[in-house]
Amino acid sequence: MPFVKVVKNKSYFKTFQVKFRRRREGRTDYRQRHKLITQDKNKYQSPKYRLVVRFTNRYVLCQIVYAEVCGDKVLCAAHSKELAKHGLTLGLKNYSAAYCTGLLVARRLLTQLGLDETYTGVEEPTGEVVTTEYNGRTYFVEEVDDEKKPFRCLLDVGIKNTTTGAKVFGAMKGASDGGLDIPHSEKRFPGYTRDTKQFDAEMHKDRIMGVHVADYMREMEEDDEENYQKHFANYLAIETEADDIEELYEKVHASIREDPTRDPVEKFTAIDKSFKKPTKKTYEQRRADASAKKAALNADDSDED
């Protein structure tokens, strides 16, 4: 067969089909999304719920979302900025804060659905994966109620890399310990070694309780006192040192379980109604203003001469 040169001519581009906009922008993995939201057709109006975890420059956002034809709808949401209510005002993006945010959205959702007393979750973090066999099916909760099944949702990581120890799994673990049924394994948690296929749950627990932050504080304090005072200035301002970190997160977890509800937001009413848009000038008025301005400039020039 002779060599044929492929030319992308006008007829080629007339049949070229562009990707979806969010795919072109690199914001949505549609292969992953299709698997997460596709439901059997005989399960009418029973959507698949997703635990959506997203990170900004400073915060963590967790949402329980389900898809409809007109778009996604959010059932419940929690933001790491809300952790200030529970006593955590610093480090709102690390692994421990991601765990707290996942715990908050789980407890808030179950309270909203009336399942908070049925599924209390893991009250003291252990770092281990909790599973229960019930009627030949695996549930990722401690115990399954006979009347009410646990709320199942799937982790949606977006375009984040699912590396071992990633913070998205901290948020997922918090939601799982909060009482949600989220399928997962220990292979992506901190403490899992792929070569030996062993999982150190104690290491994962330390990451949840902020021990890695406390160790870094102690190391920096010993090596460089001046840099320690600068780097952890906000921690020292609220009198929080390395030995207080673990106790701080214990209080935050207890506070979230005690009251996971959202604070009511006051409606903005401070609207200045005294301002009125000026009426538009006519052509003659604009000409008169321009003439007056020219006359004033000419008068200033003549005074300078």
Any overview of this molecule?
38% of the residues lie in helices and 12% in strands. By secondary structure, the protein is of the alpha+beta class. The N and C termini lie far apart (90 Å).
Task: Note the topology.
Elements: H1 10-14, H2 21-24, H3 30-37, E1 49-55, E2 60-68, E3 71-79, H4 95-113, E4 132-134, E5 137-139, E6 154-156, H5 167-177, E7 192-193, E8 198-199, H6 201-208, H7 211-223, H8 225-231, H9 233-237, H10 245-258, H11 283-304
Parallel strand pairs: 1-6
Antiparallel strand pairs: 1-2, 2-3, 4-5, 7-8
Percent range for helical residues? 25-40%
> What's the pLDDT, averaged over the residues?
92
Radius of gyration: 29 Å
In terms of DSSP E residues, the strand content is 5-15%
Structural class: alpha+beta
How is the largest sheet built, in terms of strand order?
3-2-1-6
Tell me briefly what this model is.
It contains eleven helices and eight strands. It has 305 residues and is of the alpha+beta class.
Feature tags:
305 residues; alpha+beta; four-stranded mixed β-sheet; two-stranded antiparallel ribbon; 11 helices; extended
